[in-house]
Amino acid sequence: MAGLFERWLDDLRARRDRLIADPKFQRWSLANPFTRPIARRRARAALDLTAGFVYSQVLFACARLKLFEALAGGPLTVPDLAARLALSEAATRRLLDAAASLGLTERRSAGRYGLGQLGAAFLGNPAARALVEHQPLLYADIADPVALLRGEKRAALADYWPYSDLEQPKALGPGDVAPYSALMAASQPMVAEQALDAYDMRQHKRLMDIGGGEGVFLCAAAARAPDLQLALVDLPAVADRARTRLEAAGLMTRAQIHCGDFLRDNLPKGADAVTLIRIVHDQDDERALMLLRNIRRAMEPGATLLIIEAMSGVKGAEPLDAYYGFYTLAMGRGEPRRVEEIEALLRQAGFGGFRLLDNALPTLTSILVAKAI
Predict the structure, then answer these.
(1) Which of 169, 207, 262, 359 could form a disulfide with 163 if both were Cys (CB 3.0 to 4.6 A apart)?
(2) Does the reported pTM lie above 0.90?
(3) What is the pLDDT of residue 165?
(4) Hey, is 155 helix, strand or coil?
(5) Which residues are CB-contacts of 290 (< 8 A; sequence separation ≥ 6)?
(6) How far apart, in whole angstroms, are the C-alpha atoms of residue 6 and residue 299?
């Protein structure tokens, strides 16, 4: 019975697709006052898809030129902004008008421009601006998406994330890990805030962050849970950067830093909470399962694992499949996964008791809780 219903639904959708593709129907839907709003929304969505790359370049230009910071004190005239941005007045006006059309700037009185609502949001979020300035690597890699899909070109992101293509990542030196470690540290506060608002770390005694980078998440967790003991596992060159940050924060009396390869080395035991933040979607299924099994061996039954990353199919975050699908393709490893796909890997590794937590920004991250069984 279910199969019959699914075939009927497929046939209904095929009829719908043929109707929408018909030029006569398209003209009729625009002429009809009842269907015109729907047709206009569809046309706007098509425009956004077509022009989306240009929109992203306008945002990148605003970030690179520090336009939002320039407008932080209030509206300015085009000549004032041109001098600050080192652009001609004509180029400045072109950028401001483009940004205004996207809500990044806003036209004000006396020919001045101020922040738009989106521009103000970016001004208040340095982590988001850091991610925007990282995007040109991806833009270059997907300039020919067909070549990328066919495996005919090596993408620059594979070199930016060097551990993704190495069988011996512990050999990476300070210069190899500095660019991506700095980016992760700059963008991590957004993720940490979402995760720690959704999950109370005060219920745990010891937290271990696997692939914890420079320790930004541990610093945030320590501030929320003053009695929490901390542990971090990452490659030697990255662990050195974490030690510097944790020492500066006065947390080394509560923290232990472990140098190692989280796929192949035995992980420290004793943590009743373990976090994997933006790690699983960097791995193919074989390596993800290898990692989860390695973590499970270090955990006692009943201990908690939190997987914190953008997940496919989560309501409100549907376009992430497009972004992370192509980002991980360019990176050379990994893929966005649905919650149920992550849970299937977790079951194979010895976890159960899954809970997907509600959080305010699923476009940024989701939080999946699992228990070691």
Answers:
(1) 169
(2) no
(3) 58
(4) coil
(5) 263
(6) 43
